[in-house]
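worker-03 picked up job from queue 'complexes'. Input manifest follows; two sequence lines, order preserved.
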Amino acid sequence: VTPASTPIGLAISNAAPSALTILLLFASVVPLRLGAGGGITLFVALIATYYWSLYRPDVMPTWVVFVIGVLNDTLLGQPLGIATLALVIVRASALSQAKYLKVQPLLAGWIGFAVIAPVAMTASWLAGCIVLASFLPYRGVLGECFLTVAFYPVLAFVFARLGRGDLSED
Amino acid sequence: VRRRDGSDIRIAAPTRTWAQRFALAIAAGLSLTLIVIGRGEGGLTERVRVHVMDGVSPILAIISQPAAAISNFTDDLRELSSIREENTRLRDENNRLRQWETVALRLETENTNLRSLLDYVPEGRPRFATARVIARSGGSFVRSLLVSAGADHGMAKGQVAFSGEGVIGRIVEVGARTSRVLLLSDLNSRVPVLMVDARERGVLAGDNSAEPRILYLPLRSKVLAGDRVVTSGEGGVFPAGLLVGTVVAAGESGVRVQTFADPYRLDFIRLADYSYQPAGPETPAKPAPIKRPPAAGAEAHPPAAPAVPAQAAQPTPPRPAQTQRRESPNPAAVRTPAPVAGPGMSEELSLTGPSPGQAAPAAAQPSPRAAQPASPRREAPSALAPPPQPVAVPAPLPAPLLPESAP
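worker-03 finished. Artifact:
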């Protein structure tokens, strides 16, 4: 009997991805003095949204993605809606490509993310430029994008371990 | 059964797809709405942010402690390799700073006495608090820190945030238990500043890069790399004379400043409320003679600092400076600046200069004032705008939220 076979176990395993994402979100803004790069924050929510939208869209529904986006903007102190927009774009893209990417190895998912993430982050940067009424340095977006894409396999591995119990039941 | 199941799936799948699309459309619409609403200043979105931050601050506080432990551990590992030379360097620096402490104490006493003679109305003394940094935001849009002190602890918008080295920003959002500090490097940060050597004023403007630039300089600006930058006090948000940074690039592409403090390496920051004005403890109880200030602290010559001339005629035996400060009859002398760089003191700009040998010539001068600008390379830092609170004591950092002084 797997833990997910009981109703409570199922509820917990369904909530686990969102809970872990929120926890990682908190961890990503906690001050760490690890060398340089203090000005760049890993966009954890983007990775999580993409991963779960691709492989298990049911465990992280759109409204949860929205809430995570608002929380992300709040934690970073940036205009509300900026990160949310990027997350929604990533979710929409991942859902539309899930049919093809889902059956491929994880590498294909990474490549897909490397294509979608810059697009979503650029859209969110454009929105930021409009909201703040100034030309924001794009270098910051590039740095954040690079870091986030580079970190995708690490988090995807963690998420895959988390989702293994559920996936084996499908 | 199989057929019915099959038809269920065929109906359910498109329905789910449509539901997903509908939800996505609504989420996208809401995101854009939030973005548009957020353009208004200080409205609904700020209240939402503040409440959410207050709600999650306990979680962040819990997470930030192991994170700080990890950071400390890695710092320890890094520092272990250079601990010997660091020790030597610090010992030298300590000797030098002790001399300057003595000079500062003497000048402070003299200042107090002269002010008492002039019936000088003291400026407001800031109230300091120390708070833990529980979240930081880099990214492309905002440069800010979240600290674990809010309106409940006396925080208010506009209060100035310091590290040990200098100004890092100011409070822009206040919740009950948290506040957000907008860093100098943020796009929305504008701080009126003064370049010390060039004596030129400008506005330090963040652009989300690590090195903010200076706007509104004169056409033929004389600012050079290496010039120190302090707040000019214009506009009233920041008092004059607070240390900000050093000019790192000055040319046709503009002037850029490296701030003294790296806000992303801080566990604790200090917050100063300059609107706080207790009844002037700065004024001594009774007037004292001008040239013979009575403060015992002024005679606190540590044995390692023989070159400093002040009050050498008085045969006070050398005692530990700390003890003497406690015994001092002058209340102002008790509030002695710690040897660490105090961000509130523009006079500490001059503390970068002399080695013990370099301070020696000043000993020949009879006037105590002559010892002060002893920095050989940088002239006249003391000619700056007067420090707003010459005797501000940094609150001990590790204590979370210690109001600096009771009136």
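worker-03 released lock.
Confidence is low (pLDDT under 50) at residues 1-8, 279-407 of chain B.
Chain B is about 30% helix and 15% strand.
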